[in-house]
Amino acid sequence: QVQLVESGGGLVQAGGSLRLSCAASGRTFRSYIMGWFRQAPGKEREVVGTISPSGGTTYITEDVRGRVTISRDNAENTVDLQMNSLEPEDTAVYYCAAEKPPTDYSYTISDARLRTPEFYDYWGQGTQVTVSS
Fold first, then answer.
1. Do 122 and 98 form a contact (C-beta atoms < 8 A)?
2. pLDDT digits 0-9 by tens, 22-45
3. How far is CA 109 from CA 47, 70, 120, in A?
4. How many helices, marked H, and strands, marked E, lie in the chain?
């Protein structure tokens, strides 16, 4: 199992930047696919980005591509989301998620299955990001 704690959210003006961080417990963090999701009021939870266990491949959803990057440090058990040129539409609660795939599980990081909340068993409590216009 893994426990996740997000940090780094806050209030920022449009055009600004934030770096969200997710700290994971457990000795097998490097085995987990990690994802960042967000949920705005009245909307469904949606993927922002995903990253492979090694960190070698990433996926960023089209809505934020070019403004957002995802990275991980397996030595520190962290996964980060760097968000630049923030827009009011980015206002949401941002969640870190983790899933350890079976050894023989075949996937690519852009696989649609990895973009759904249902794929992930472990979630953080979320961190609020508010972008003012």
1. yes
2. 999 988 999 999 999 999 999 999
3. 12, 12, 14
4. 0, 11
Strands 127-132 and 10-13 turn out to be parallel
In DSSP notation, 73-133 reads: ETTTTEEEEEE-S--GGG-EEEEEEEE---TT----TT-GGGGSGGG-SEE---EEEEEE-
Q: Could you give the strand order of the β-sheet that contains 68-73, starting from the edge strand earlier in sequence?
A: 4-7, 18-24, 78-83, 68-73
HSE at residue 49, side-chain half, CA atoms within 13 A, is: 22
User: Residue 71 in 3-state DSSP?
Assistant: strand
